[in-house]
């Protein structure tokens, strides 16, 4: 597993200095959304297209041997409201636009309200488009989406069926903004505040880690093994935020990836594993109410943790690829759903703990205390559900609805929500003598010792 992780991360770090890089071979899509970028009034885009080939090129040539203008083909930079609206435009062009044989750049339904920059392939000889370069200056601040469109064959009325016209090309787009001093900034304007945001959030989590360490030192007799796992989680979370801030800052200045990416993806994966481990162990009561993991708990961990590793690596690789890659949206949505499923599976040990406490309260002379503990675990369960729903669903919906220049606030809000969740969890399970979440009665302890003697050390 570790060798696979490092190999995947090496592929991510090996990228070149390109905001967008897309290679398609024999692609029949009529519209391809390559990605979005927020320009300032001093923006610049350089688009280089290599090895462009269209199937049956003779059918689209004029008498002079150039690709005719009747059915446009090329690239276009459109102003859009959000990345989601860019995907909606692409889906519309693939559906209703293609059905009515309305070319993407001529369709009033998807025309931008602010600005559009054309990079046409028409009017060139096939030999000239094997390698072609376009450059443009952007003076209208907005969020822009880069599209490839292929309207060849739209005027063919010999058949009601719109026959596919495969194309192949390798496109590299470099986009940046310049400041008053003429310094290039490769980060989108929507992402420029993120290095500072992540840096400040890292300091917040470092402070939480120091506070947690002091709590552990202040009550050493009540410290359990799970408390050390929680300390490790906060440390890894802090490091992942620091490395993400460094990664984005380096990319903003150079437009290239670096070793910061390697550190970030490693700590991001370890953080995800640690978070799920902490929630699973707290929900099962490991090292606190029992010194062993049940078979149910072990099976959940053996399924969820490897799944979370694969999901994290896959999402990272998908996000680093161009959105124009075939099936990009389908894979991304599927991985997001799998991530939510993993989060929901973490709740199972908590549900089992609540059920066990309810059963114990029904025939226990300490029913009041057991019911109190059950209610607290139920509250913890509700908080986890709210955290998952807010960070995995609500924030995504808000990000798709707010203005592009406010999306960095959503990222920061997600980290603040994580900090609040960590603080709540730490407050519930902090090491202290009379903690109702961690309280174990003497009879319960004797029962655990008996079970440990019966099951043997292999159950630990």
UniProtKB/TrEMBL annotation:
It is a multi-pass membrane protein. It comes from Bodo saltans. InterPro entries: GOST_TM, GPR107/GPR108-like. GO terms for cellular component: Golgi apparatus; membrane. Residues 1-18 form the signal peptide. PANTHER family: LUNG SEVEN TRANSMEMBRANE RECEPTOR, RE59932P. The chain crosses the membrane at residues 196-213, 225-243, 263-288, 330-352, 379-398. It holds the Pfam family GOST_TM. Residues 193-411 form the GOST seven transmembrane domain. It is found in: Membrane. This is Membrane-associated protein, putative. Keywords: Membrane, Signal, Transmembrane, Transmembrane helix.
């Amino acid at each position: 597993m570790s060798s696979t992780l490092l190999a995947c991360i090496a592929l991510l770090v090996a990228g070149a200095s390109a905001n967008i890089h897309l290679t398609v071979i024999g692609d029949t899509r009529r519209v391809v959304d390559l990605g979005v970028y927020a320009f300032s009034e001093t923006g610049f885009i350089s688009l280089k297209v290599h090895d462009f080939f269209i199937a049956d090129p003779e059918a689209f040539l004029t008498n002079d041997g150039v690709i005719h203008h009747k059915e446009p083909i090329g690239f276009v930079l459109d102003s859009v409201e959000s990345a989601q609206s860019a995907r909606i435009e692409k889906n519309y062009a693939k559906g209703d636009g293609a059905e009515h044989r309305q070319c993407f750049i001529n369709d009033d339904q998807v025309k931008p309200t602010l600005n559009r920059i054309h990079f046409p392939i028409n009017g060139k000889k096939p030999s000239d488009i094997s390698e072609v370069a376009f450059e443009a200056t952007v003076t209208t601040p907005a969020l822009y989406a880069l599209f490839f469109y292929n309207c060849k064959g739209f005027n063919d009325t010999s058949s009601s069926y719109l026959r596919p016209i495969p194309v192949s090309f390798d496109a590299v787009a470099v986009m940046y903004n310049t400041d008053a001093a003429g310094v290039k900034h490769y980060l989108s304007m929507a992402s420029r505040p993120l290095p500072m945001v992540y840096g400040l959030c890292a300091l917040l989590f470092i402070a939480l880690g120091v506070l947690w360490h002091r709590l552990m030192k202040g009550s050493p007799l009540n410290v359990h093994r799970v408390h050390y796992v929680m300390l490790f989680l906060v440390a890894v979370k802090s490091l992942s935020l620091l490395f993400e801030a460094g990664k984005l800052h380096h990319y903003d200045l150079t437009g290239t990836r670096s070793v910061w990416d390697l550190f970030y993806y490693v700590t991001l994966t370890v953080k995800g594993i640690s978070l799920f481990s902490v929630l699973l162990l707290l929900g099962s009561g490991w090292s606190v109410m029992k010194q062993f993991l049940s078979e149910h708990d072990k099976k959940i961990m053996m399924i969820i943790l490897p799944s979370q590793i694969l999901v994290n690596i896959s999402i990272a690789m998908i996000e680093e690829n161009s959105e124009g890659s075939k099936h990009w949206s389908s894979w991304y949505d599927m991985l997001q759903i799998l991530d939510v499923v993993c989060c929901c599976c973490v709740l199972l040990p908590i549900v089992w703990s609540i059920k066990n406490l309810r059963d114990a309260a029904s025939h226990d002379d300490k029913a009041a205390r057991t019911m109190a503990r059950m209610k607290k675990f139920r509250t913890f369960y509700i908080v986890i559900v709210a955290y998952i729903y807010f960070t995995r669903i609500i924030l995504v919906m808000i990000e798709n609805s707010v203005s592009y220049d406010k999306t960095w606030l959503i990222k920061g809000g997600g980290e603040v929500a994580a900090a609040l969740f960590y603080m709540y969890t730490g407050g519930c399970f902090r090491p202290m003598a009379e903690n109702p979440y961690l309280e174990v009665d003497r009879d319960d302890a004797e029962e655990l010792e008996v079970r440990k003697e019966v099951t043997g050390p292999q159950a630990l």
